Amino acid sequence: MSIIEFSGLTKAYKDVVAVKELTASVATGRITGFLGPNGAGKSTALKCLLSLAAPTSGTALIRGASYRDLLAPMKEVGAVIETGGFNPSLSGLKNLRIIAAAVGIPDSRVLEVLDLVDLTDARNKKVKQYSLGMKQRLSLATAILGEPEILVLDEPANGLDPIGIAWLRDFLKKLAANGHSILISSHQLAEMQNTVDDVLIIHKGSLITQGTIANVVGSGTLEEAFIRLVEASA
Amino acid sequence: MNLLKSEFRKLVYTRSFYGYTGGAIFIALLSSIPAAFSVNALKGKLSGASLLDPQMVDGIYAKAASGYLFALIMGIAIMGNEFQNGQAISTFLATPRRINVLYSKLAIAAGAGICMMLISTALGFGGAYIGLSYYPHAKATSSTFLNLTITAVVSGAVLAIMGVSIGALIRNVKIAMSGAVIWLQFVEKLIVLFWTTGGKYLTSGLILGMMDIHINLKSAKKFFNISTGDYFGPGISVALLLLYAALFAGVGSWVALRRDIE
């Protein structure tokens, strides 16, 4: 059963078409890798999914509704969009307390999620003093603040060191084991092969394949399959 | 209520808010304390510059409400920083119905603008009082305090709302703030001073109108004549300022609702 559906999604900025007629779906209770080279349109498609950008045509729906129309968006869907979203002059704790207040989540939950992402000791540091890995973890803390069943993560492993990547992998596995549905975009293919159940590959804004990792990869690696598919679609 | 709480936290957690309030107080004191001495110094050079005239004394007290520029700057920061920092991403993820965010921002900005102006105007009033205490014969009209309070409340709310809308319209916060300072402190002031026919419709002219001051200063050089007689009265001034606030809020909301988050 699909929990996220892109249907003929197109997003154009002036004369640049970032996403073109994207039709794809994400299954419930699985980790789906949203893959593509830099500039393939992954972030744009996710921004349309999360109502941060308006589609030029087509739809991007979560449980049959647009993100904007969900009753309690952050309690249904947790999202990481790049490392932005925080006031760099405020501490991680204050940034999360601002977001929690907007959704009616108690401050005690803020401390819980900071602990879950190992930021308790750094909670009073200003975000501008955080390393990239710490910012990524703060973004993940925001995503799980509302205890959502669905997670949409845009390049959460970007800039992470090997320890950070291993931490992220374990973190996502734990969430998936608890029944979360996760859509994760990345261009780090080796890491994705160890993490995802399904893949959805786009290139130049268009879908080139979708399926389980086993079906898409076949006997080689995800990287080999990816290069083969991208070259075939060019 | 959740959104108001969130926007309130954004405001009180941000140090610059206290800096803007300090700036408003500084300007109010800087304008009001020396005003009485300035008028006294000009009494031989400008006819009408007399502390015996209650209208002139009102004009000195009106200087207490000079901090409104900082209400505008604060409004710009409230909205502009949201986009500049990328904080808009988390804000609109938490509340994808952007119009609700806009309403909350406008409400918090208006409240903060009123507080800022009441504090700075009260201190500026004290400054003017100290300056005027050197001239025991100087008496204000009975409506000064009421007019000043109305001016502080209305200008604080309206300028902050206009600031939020400017912050939504102009992506670069520094350009928006610099433009606002140049317009409000220099361009508008000159228009209000030398071209009352048009100046009375501008924010500074309307703020002056709310004070209901009737001053006529005449110098030997004709171009430096100052008359506030042509300005609108308090009622029309308040109504026009509220109309401007509504127009700015409408345009700002329209832009913010349609903007893609980068």
Structure description:
The complex is a heterodimer of chains A (234) and B (262). Helix content of chain A is 37%, strand content 27%. The model of chain A has no long low-confidence stretch (mean pLDDT 88). In chain A, the strands form two sheets. Chain A has a six-stranded mixed β-sheet with strand order 5-6-7-3-8-9, with helices on both faces. A three-stranded antiparallel β-sheet of chain A has the order 2-1-4, with helices on one face. With 234 residues, chain A is an alpha/beta fold. In chain B, helix 5 (68-84) packs antiparallel against helix 9 (173-194). The model of chain B has no long low-confidence stretch (mean pLDDT 86). In chain B, strands 1-2 form a two-stranded antiparallel sheet. In chain B, strand 1 and strand 2 (226-227) form a beta hairpin. Chain B has helices at 2-13, 15-32, 35-42, 54-62, 68-84, 87-94, 98-132, 144-169, 173-194, 196-199, 203-210, 234-258, and strands spanning 216-217, 226-227. Helix content of chain B is 73%, strand content 2%. By secondary structure, chain B is mainly alpha-helical. At the A-B interface, helix 3 of A face helix 1 and helix 6 of B.
